[in-house]
Amino acid sequence: MILKFLKSQGSLVNIAYLVIAVLLWLQSLMVPLGYTFFEGEGKDLLYSPIYSVTQQLPLLQVALSLAIVLFVSFLIQQINISFSLIKVRTKLPALVFILLVGGLTPMHTLHPLYLAAILLMLSIYSIFSVFNNPEPVTHFFNAGLFLSIGSLFYFNLLALLPALFIAVSVLRREPLFRDYFALFIGFLLPWLFAFSYLFFTDRIVEAITIFGDNILTPVSHFSKNYLLLGYAGIIALLTIIGSFKMLQLYDSSKVSTRKYFQVLFILFVFSMFSFALVPATSQEFLIILFIPVSFLIANLLSSITSTFWSELLFSLLLLASAFMQVARYFDFVKV
Fold first, then answer.
1. Which residue has better confidence, 331 or 61?
2. Cα–chain-centroid distance for residue 204?
3. Which site in 73, 92, 253, 256 is 20 to 30 Å from 108, CA atoms measured?
4. So what's the pLDDT on residue 330?
5. Per residue in 20-69, pLDDT tens?
6. What are phi and psi for residue 328, nearest 5 degrees?
7. Residue 85 carries which DSSP code?
8. pLDDT at 198
9. Is the Cβ–Cβ distance between 222 and 282 less than 8 Å?
């Protein structure tokens, strides 16, 4: 069985994950394309110099997107190992993330959100580290710092800041003012440096215009894109099933596991708010949503006792991701 092999341990599994990722990106590597940005989307403070170097090198952009997805999947796996989110030892969260992003074929090229996703993963790791930690202040500071730096790559990552403040009360039995303060200061510092730089280079007005474009520019890659809507629908179905399974296992789970999944749920909710309410967010923000969803679907596939149903649900995800490659080959998916 495919799933039985892929959720096992061993170096062969790592090689299999790499091969799957390369196959999903193969068409983009053969016919590389850059991302079509709206005005201001590629001009965020930390991403702008990277874009200026790579904009004429589409193959490099595609290769970097693949490398970053693999690195984010590695970070997802490290979080799973460090905090034991899934009862059984498995690398499935990493694979699920690769498959989810792999099916999002228009995102098989460099985008500022990929770099922001790395910083978000470091922020999640930091915020998880405060649970039952007698000295959590440094971790709170780091969580805010990493999220802030990520928002300098992709401005709309700011939407997740309230989720971190709520996470403080979830992970700390008796949260203190200094916990919130450390988180806020960590978040504030990169933006203070950023505005200082913008002030001394006389770019404040330009930056504010870019921030406005990143919020208010209406973008929708889903309009009449029925294949992308169908793909999102399959992921939504697996997410709903995974949520019910998590609720079923909730009482038997460790307290720490419950807390971590609560935080992931809060991040998911605020990601959905941004996706629904901010006009400029569209298909790229699905990658942020895929981070908590990867843990949820991996937990579902690992905890189902029926081999038939686990293989069926995994096959549904695998086939959906593969079908999106075929659809792009025949130019059915809007880029």
1. 61
2. 29
3. 92
4. 67
5. 999 999 999 999 988 878 777 788 889 999 999 999 999 999 999 999 99
6. -70, -35
7. -
8. 92
9. yes
Sign of CA dihedral 301, 304, 310, 313: negative
User: 334: pLDDT confidence band, cut at 50, 70 and 90?
Assistant: low
Could you tell me the CA-to-CA distances from 301 to 92, 204, 317 in Å, in that order?
8, 49, 11
How far apart CA 52 and CA 221 sit, in angstroms, is 24
- What is the pTM (predicted TM-score) of this model? 0.94
Q: Which residue has the higher pLDDT, 188 or 223?
A: 188
Contacts with 269 (C-beta within 8 Å, 6 or more apart), sequence order:
163
* Residue labelled with tokens 């990169």: 190
Q: Which residue has the tokens 């019910």?
A: 244
| Residue 5, pLDDT score | 78
Count of residues making up the chain: 335
CA distance 329 to 259: 42
Element (H, E) at 170: helix 161-171
Amino acid at the residue 40: G
Coil, helix or strand for 34? coil
Domain boundaries, the chain: 2-329
CB 287 within 8 Å of CB 113: yes
User: For residue 15, how many C-alpha atoms fall within 13 Å in the half-sphere facing its CB?
Assistant: 3
Which amino acid makes up residue 102? G
Token output for 87 = 């009862």
Predicted local confidence at residue 30, as pLDDT: 92
Report DSSP state, residue 38. Answer: P
CA distance 65 to 61: 6
240: CB partners within 8 A, 6+ apart: none
Joined tokens for residue 167? 């996470």
In the structure encoding, which two tokens stand for residue 257, read together? Answer: 């596991």
